[in-house]
Amino acid sequence: MKKIFFSFLALVATVFLTGCGEEKSATQTDAIAKIKERGYVRIGVFSDKPPFGFVDKDGKNQGYDIYFAKRIAKDLLGDESKVKFELVEAASRTEVLVADKVDITLANFTKTTEREKVVDFALPYMKVSLGVVSPEGAVIKDISELKGKKLIVNKGTTADAYFTKNHPEIELIKFDQNTETFAALLDGRGVALSHDNALLFAWVKENPKFVVGVETFGDIDVIAPAVKKGNEALLKWLNDEIINLGKENFFHKAYDATLKPVYGDTVNPESLVVEGGKI
């Protein structure tokens, strides 16, 4: 009887574990199946961060991230137009994934240890570091010059996190949107502004009375797509996509189409572009 009883328990355990495994596998597969059934992929992007993600004068989404997003839609659904852009702010990029409002966040999203606790990042497609921009008549050339002064940053960005952690002696003025942040610099509400240096290099092209006095500091970070935590099927698809796109030099083509017209020859594409997910 004991042998029969324990055999029965073993059978129940096997069925239970197999069922759990099948359910997990089905859920992961369903993530992509649901996108295909829906007929479009939802991707979170910026509306106010040219040349990476912005809305042009005709109301169309443009930029480096948009170029990539359209290719994702083409390869996933067979048509680059089958993408719904959800406009996000820096501080809400993880929230929209957790709340299942988007399938993928592509909003120039820097991979950090803290964010990895909440979302899953795919392979990188860009690298970046922080910089500081200030008026040409009062250029900030070193972080030490910001002591006791007001520095403008975006909430929830790596610049916000860096200065909050490492420089409590610097007063931070924070805004949600990039347009608000740069307007504050133009209005003189802070002596300088810190953001991704790739963005600052582009911004000073349009605002020649300002200078990127600190071109790089902190760690070299990577920009990568993110998906909801545990969405292994979509994560694997994205990783495979990035590896395959690297074989055709896709991200250099994206750079030439969206960033080079802004940067010209002042920025080496190799300092920003990552192909095939390899740093």
TrEMBL record:
InterPro entries: Bact_solute-bind_prot3 (IPR051455), Solute-binding_3/MltF_N (IPR001638). It comes from the Bacteria. PROSITE patterns: PROKAR_LIPOPROTEIN. One of its GO terms (cellular component) is outer membrane-bounded periplasmic space. GO terms for biological process: amino acid transport. The keyword Repeat does not apply. The keyword Acyltransferase does not apply. Residues 40-262 form the Solute-binding protein family 3/N-terminal domain. CDD domains: PBP2_Cysteine (cd13694). SUPFAM superfamilies: Periplasmic binding protein-like II (SSF53850). Signal peptide: none annotated. It holds the Pfam family SBP_bac_3. Gene3D superfamilies: Periplasmic binding protein-like II (3.40.190.10). Keywords: Signal, Transport. Belongs to the bacterial solute-binding protein 3 family. This is Amino acid ABC transporter, periplasmic cysteine-binding protein. The gene is cjaA.
